[in-house]
Specification:
5-stranded parallel β-sheet, Rossmann fold
């Protein structure tokens, strides 16, 4: 029995704009050798409990000015990332900046994968363990559990974590 190798044409790459959080991008590029689309995603996490003072601003705890600044910072960070790690010939990069309530980042990543028709999600794992993982949760693990497409988890070597 021979099984054809999968061909990936659309890969969603969530990044947190840290050096470690963008480690999956080169791997996504490598999988799209024949060309395709990388959907670069930055999720702006919102607190669980919205500030009632700003409830009329789309249920967020940020003022419109704070929200605009958060989006501008994310877009600047993604622009820097794409300059530092440019897409190879034939690979198009589309940028997405979206909101998510705290604890819902993985769900938003999986939703965007579905919306964009992604064939795969490539996410970096910070490698947290113990109490920090319990308290902070693991976005990569939750994406791995709930995604409807294959997930490539790029583990950052522990020597790079400090």
């Amino acid at each position: 029995m021979t099984t054809a190798l999968p061909v990936y044409k659309k890969i969603l790459v969530p990044v947190d704009l840290s050096a470690r959080g963008s480690r999956s991008l080169p791997h996504a590029y490598a999988l799209l050798k024949g060309g395709g689309v990388v959907h670069l995603l930055q999720v702006i996490e919102q607190p669980d409990v919205p500030n009632p003072m700003y409830a009329h601003y789309s249920n967020t705890s940020r003022t419109p000015e704070e929200r605009a600044k958060a989006y501008a910072t994310a877009e600047d960070g993604i622009a820097r990332l794409t300059r530092e790690c440019p897409a190879p010939l034939g690979v198009d990069v589309q940028v997405h900046v979206i909101d998510a309530l705290a604890g819902k980042v993985a769900a938003r990543i999986c939703e965007l994968a579905k919306e964009t028709g992604a064939d795969m999600i490539a996410v970096a794992s910070h490698g947290r363990s113990g109490l920090s993982r319990v308290l902070l949760g693991s976005v990569a693990e939750n994406v791995l559990r709930h995604a409807e497409v294959p997930v490539l988890v790029v583990r950052v070597p522990s020597k790079e974590l400090s």
